Amino acid sequence: MAARTNPVPSVWARQPREPEQPSLSRAAIVREAVVMLDAEGIDALSMRKLATRLNAGATSLYRHVATKDELMELAVDEVFGEIALPPADSPNWRAAAVEAAQAFRATALRHPWLSSVLGQAGLVYLGPNLMSFSERLAALFAAAAFPEPARAIETLISYVVGMSTAEAAWLTAVARSGESEAEFVARLMPAAEQATVGYEHLNGDSTAAAAEDPAAARDAKFSYGLEVVLDGLALRLPR
Length: 239
Known about the structure:
Elements lengths: L25 H15 L6 H7 L4 H5 L5 H13 L12 H18 L3 H4 L10 H16 L5 H29 L3 H15 L9 H8 L1 H21 L5
Helix pairs in contact: 1-4, 4-7, 5-7, 5-8, 5-11, 7-8, 8-11, 9-10, 10-11
């Protein structure tokens, strides 16, 4: 008897079931899941709570989405559809890469859970929105004559994901405080300044800039690192 092949654990690897509740669609489920994730975070999301918000039974949800893992794949792909990228034939590949990175970062900060789950959400990279995003980036780097556009994309995305994960965690802490970012930083500054006493290289202009305008300081920090990454990628271009 032939061995039974185990199914691939991904929403993109199976055919969707026919809906038995016309008023409830997979698209509506995913949209509401994204709202929940944005408001309450990953730990608060459950199929039962989501069903309650949709005025449906949990069984009805399972007809569209088999598991919470599948739901996360769909939610990730949903928000990737928000990222606007410059055209592949942009005359300046570097300016286009900056635009793409900034768009990705803005989306990641609108959805603070996004960056932290990218490496855990199953075969999320097979989703149509993420595939389209990857294809458009690949076309941009290929048009710029990068010998290995996929490697260039991985480098750029790794930087954005790493920075936005830390930034989203910081903004989540600020939101939990009930204060504005400026108020939160102002309250934190005395302890931060005291902690850096005796460390001459840790007590510099960046601390003062963060105190004066924390949002602008975050922007400047991201832009600095992005320029360094692009400087390195530029060295890979043919002379």
